[in-house]
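re: ur question from yesterday

yeah so i grabbed the chain u mentioned. its 298 aa long if i counted rite. heres the sequnce exactly as i have it in my notes:
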Amino acid sequence: METKGLGIESVLLGLGAWWAKPRIWLGPAWAVLCGGLASGRLGFNGRTVLVLLLSLFLGDPLLGTIWREASIIASPSNPTSLSEGSKVRLSPLPYTLPGSLADLLFRWSEERLSWWSSVWPRFEAPLAGLAFALPLVFVLAILLGQSVIILIAMALILVAWESLSLHGGKKRSRLLQAFYAGGVAWLVGYLAFIPQVALQRHGEAFPWALIYTGVLYAFQSIDKGERAKGMRVLNLVQIFGVTVLILTREPILAGVAGLLLLPQMLLQPVFKRGRAYLRRTQFLALMGMMVGALAVAI
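ran it thru and got these structure tokens back, copy pasting raw so excuse formatting
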């Protein structure tokens, strides 16, 4: 994921798809569409179109902005110590004895101001992005229902967990990122159309959010140069999806999903470069995810 912050103008005018790269078509927007289709309640009436548009805006640019800007703030590259020349010097307090409580409080305030003045240029754009996206996220979640509110709260916990991990010096979790971008967005599209009282009858939907996560994780790995690992995950996840279709007594859709998977597997030895493989085959995975969503809907 890109780690460059957005300026205030970009935050307000350019909330583009945070995740989707030209090389990877599978992303939050397609996940929201799959989730909406899986609900079985997509239609052409005004309310359905409005709910879908709100879900798309929530699932892709808004949630993505929060992840990206929180990652920038928590990045280990942000300064944690100050050089002598960058410290802010305040006028000393009159009648203050060295080592007294007032003197210690004064020194502490001076250090905090010095730190803030040094990091503010880096934090200004990410904080503007968060200030813009967070209120909108909660407003849209409230409009889309209680289930979406709970989901968004859990998603923000994931963001906080990833930020704390980054601040502690750990590497970015590609799997957690894939679940946030794929699984959470899939569930946003699904839960926006399903009332809470009906969730207990729709347990078969949630495995497909995880399958979507796995496919997205595989694409990420291939795009990052981990060709063998990514293709192995891609195969296993989609085979699992076909198995789910068979177990849920959808033999025709299982056959369609298998036919979409077969050329992906056959072309893997042909393309030695992972990105070339993605360009030629990822539309098949896109259709496979849509087949899974259709199976849940019917």
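noticed a couple things. The chain is about 70% helix and 0% strand. also Residues 1-22, 80-86 have pLDDT under 50 and may be disordered.
anyway ttyl
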